[in-house]
Structures are given as C-alpha cells and as structure tokens.
Amino acid sequence: EIDVPESHPRYESLLTRHRIEDGVETGITSKQGLIAQGRGEAFDYLLGERTTDTAAAAERAAAAHLLQADHAVLSINGNVAALVPGEMVTLAEATGADLEVNLFNRTAARMERIADHLREHGAEDVLGLTADGRIPGLDHERAKVDADGIGDADVVLVPLEDGDRAEALADMGKTELVVDLNPLSRSAQTAAVPIVDNIIRAVPAMTEHARELAGDEAAQREAIESFDAAEALSAAERAIRDGEL
Ligand code: PTJ
Question: What's the CATH class of domain 53-242?
Fold first, then answer.
C-alpha cells in the first residue's frame, strides 16, 4: 500500500506518517492530528525511538490497572484510530475493557467513520455515539461522553489526550492512564500512570503485559504498587535531556 523500502533507516517513522496521512484522507484523523503527530515524533526521536525501562514499567502498571478495574474504557481519537485500530481492539479483548470514540474536535462524520473503522478491525461494540453523559468543567462539545462508557468507568486509558480533558477526567476521580511522548504535557502530569512511549509500541506492549498478568492478582498489585508516576516523569525527562536510560 505504501512505497517505503524496509531498509530505510526511518522505516517505522515513515510508515507511521503514512498511516496518519491516510487517516486524514479517509476522514478519521483531524488536520490537527498531523501537527500532534509531528510533535510526538520530535519527542520520540529525542528518546531514541525506543521503550525505556520506565515506560515498560508504566505499560505493565497500566495493564494491571485495566485488569483490576470494575469498568475500564479505552478512549479512541482520530490519531489512535489511524495508528493502532486493531491493536486497541486486541488490548480491549485482553483486558475486558470497552472501546469508546472520544474526540477533541468532535464531528458526527468523524465519530461514525472511526466507529466503522474499529468495527472493520474486529470491534463488536463501540461506545461514544450516544453521548448522554458529560465531563464536568468542559464546554459542551468537548464534555460529551457515554454515560455507560467513560461516564461510568473507574479506569480510563486516554492516549494523546488534550490537557484540559485529561485534568477534568482525573478530577472525576477516575484512574487515568495516559500515553503521551511529552513528559511535560499536562496530560502526562495528571495521569495516575503516564506512559511516555509511542502509541505504536505502547499498545502491543500493554497487551503482552495483560496476558502475562491475567489471573495473577499478586503480580497485578505488585506492578501497580511498585510504579511511581512522579519518578517515571523525571526519568523520561532525564532520558530526553541527557540521553540517560
Ligand atoms: O481526533 P481528535 O479530534 O480527538 O484530536 C486528537 C489530537 C491528538 C489532535 C488532539 O487531542 C490534540 O490536539 O492533542 P495535542 O494537544 O496535540 O496532544 C497530543 C500529545 O500526544 C502531544 O503531547 C504529543 O507529543 C503526543 N503524541 C503525538 N503523537 C504521539 C504522541 N504520543 C505517543 N505516541 C504518538 N504517536
């Protein structure tokens, strides 16, 4: 489908760009999504385009939270849908979580396209279209969620989320798991578990951890308790500034 030789040193990065471009062309990703991707790439480059040990620990803790939740929801926006649709469906299956389309720049057309796209990738139920719940403290369009989805969830995974909404969700008392390559972003700063890694690597890694932790309550608790969010953010910042592991 795309013409990038696998031997190219930036193969992964170019492939990712093509997926986002395709997402814009098919009405899944917003134009702002292109800018967000560029920002993410810059941080990924500085991090060495790898999953640091601290990010791996965050992915394990996040998987444990999803397994321990009464009701976990994975939030899907236009970038996530373009980059990792099948991987999000697989993570939902591995953890018993629901999938909900939840857009920063919400339009009915993009909501429908993304829900269809997820169904094409194997999702059975896709939430988000009912929009009968609200996140307190946000303006009307940006506050919309499903009452029996994110509205009801005790644990939410919000990848590449806008800072305002991440903060408002955390204020609702939800355990928030955030994937964001920028450790200084407000979303990462307000998360119970900030995962400073590329969504492309983070989601399959979470699924792997979830499969390994499934049924082992003690290991789940250990993964959660041994994870320190503030320390993880400092470690990510050190990795960027000093190239430390
Ligand atoms: O589809 P919508 O309408 O919900 O809009 C989605 C975007 C992402 C456009 C919207 O939420 C937005 O504008 O987000 P921001 O404020 O640009 O924040 C996105 C964050 O995600 C930034 O901190 C980026 O560094 C980070 N990011 C971008 N690409 C990736 C990423 N983090 C992990 N993996 C990526 N591939």
Answer: alpha beta
